[in-house]
Design a protein that fits this description.
Blueprint lengths: L7 H7 L1 H9 L17 H7 L2 E6 L1 H18 L2 E6 H4 L10 E7 L5 H10 L6 E6 L5 H5 L2 E4 L12 H20 L4 H22 L2 H8 L7 E6 L4 H15 L2 E6 L16 E6 L5 H13 L3 E7 L10 E6 L7 H4 L1 H15 L17
Parallel strand pairs: 1-2, 1-3, 3-4, 4-5, 6-7, 6-8, 8-9, 9-10
Helix pairs in contact: 2-8, 2-9, 4-8, 4-11, 8-9, 10-14, 11-14
The structure holds 5-amino-5-deoxy-1-O-phosphono-D-mannitol.
The site of 5-amino-5-deoxy-1-O-phosphono-D-mannitol (M6R) has 16 residues, from α4 and α11.
GO biological process, one term: protein N-linked glycosylation
Catalytic activity: D-fructose 6-phosphate + L-glutamine = D-glucosamine 6-phosphate + L-glutamate
GO molecular function, one term: carbohydrate derivative binding
Length: 365
């Protein structure tokens, strides 16, 4: 079933263009969001939403963190994101007209399911499951479901489930914006970016060989830092989780602006630092953060847009990514980080598809 691929994880990384195409089919016209997928009342109910709470675990939680940037920026609605195992055991203040969104690949994660059940009597306007398994408990128990169509994900490390969750969440952000009267140019731009996404993901995957070459540098490292800003900060978190999970190298992610507040003390020649820096208004700021790392002898690997005009220099390697609309950059920049962790794990000889101590689906708390 792995076909030409050595591991399920690599196969699943390469399935992402198709998984995204399938997930996005039927969600838009050429330039408008179609909300009917959530049911006949959806348009009206989405219009009523004033707040969003997102709950999930692990990689799905990272998808939620990206969504917060999108929802607040694109739809202008307040959004909180919380780890399900925390949410389920505390009293949550739920403002009027709040939509609860539970994100889970499997739809059987014990904490996420318990969070949905816990929320039942908390006065939410509606509950939405973003899920990859149609018949799962989460998908059945939520008021609405938005199914990702990633197909079965066998590798314990989540890859195609994550990027399809992000696509679904960008759709949700655009749907909320549209139902709250956003100008059609705003939603139209997102819809067009999503239409082009599968092809751009295909292009980004062609960097496979460049990334494989970088993996050697991590072979005898114990620790790595990942940096990002804005919606790319949760992507750095996801990159760090992936590396930890399958190569057993300790990795931590920071919002780049936090460097000086502590982690810079860790940086020396033996600390690789990975950053994700698409061409956006935060790039100049990130450049100065990167300079701080380089000045301390840190080995930097920076994934940046080819238009960003960043040249390799001592201690900095840039991997150039194709230009994309900034709204889909978090999805695109996930790919090189998945590939990086995969190839580092190969160098380390770990069990890529079944990392030690982990299960694919965490159905007990
Ligand atoms: O099935 P779920 O999305 O609810 O799973 C949540 C986490 O257990 C999962 O994302 C986990 O963090 C992955 N192994 C990460 O690669």
């Amino acid at each position: 079933e792995k076909g030409e691929y050595r591991h399920y994880m690599l196969k699943e990384i390469h399935e992402q263009p198709a998984a995204l195409r399938d997930t996005l089919t039927g969600l838009f016209t050429e330039d408008r969001v179609l909300t009917a997928i959530l049911g006949p009342e959806a348009e009206k109910r989405l219009h009523e939403v004033q707040n969003i709470h997102i709950v999930a675990c692990g990689t799905s939680y990272h998808a939620g963190l990206v969504a917060r940037y999108w929802i607040e920026d694109i739809a202008g609605l307040a959004c909180n994101v919380e780890i399900a195992s925390e949410f389920r055991y505390r009293r949550v203040a739920v403002p009027a007209n709040t939509l609860l969104v539970c994100i889970s690949q499997s739809g059987e994660t014990a904490d996420t399911l318990a969070a949905l059940r816990h929320a039942r009597h908390e006065g939410y306007l509606a509950t939405l499951a973003i899920c990859n398994v149609p018949g799962s408990s989460l998908a059945r128990e939520a008021d609405w479901r938005l199914l990702t169509k990633a197909g079965p994900e066998i590798g314990v490390a989540s890859t195609k489930a994550f990027t399809t969750q992000l696509a679904a969440l960008l759709w949700l952000s655009a749907a909320l914006a549209q139902t709250h009267g956003a100008p059609p140019e705003i939603t139209g731009e997102i819809v067009r970016a999503l239409h082009g996404l599968p092809t751009q993901v295909e292009q980004a995957l062609q960097q496979d060989a460049d990334i494989q070459r970088l993996a050697e540098r991590f072979a005898n490292k114990q620790h790595t830092l990942f940096l990002g800003r804005g919606p790319l900060y949760p992507i750095a978190m996801e990159g760090a989780l992936k590396l930890k999970e399958i190569s057993y190298i300790h990795a931590e992610a920071y919002a780049a602006g936090e460097l000086k507040h502590g982690p810079l003390a860790l940086v020396d020649e033996s600390m690789p630092v990975v950053s994700v820096a698409p061409n956006c208004q935060l790039l100049e700021k990130l450049k100065s953060n990167l300079e701080e790392v380089r000045a301390r002898g840190g080995q930097l690997i920076n994934f940046a847009c080819e238009t960003a005009d960043m040249q390799d220099q001592d201690g900095i390697t840039h991997i150039h990514m194709p230009w994309v609309n900034s709204c889909i950059a978090p999805i695109l920049y996930t790919l090189p980080l998945q590939l990086l962790s995969y190839y580092v794990a190969l160098v380390k000889g770990t069990d890529v598809d079944k990392p030690r101590n982990l299960a694919k689906s965490v159905t007990v708390e």
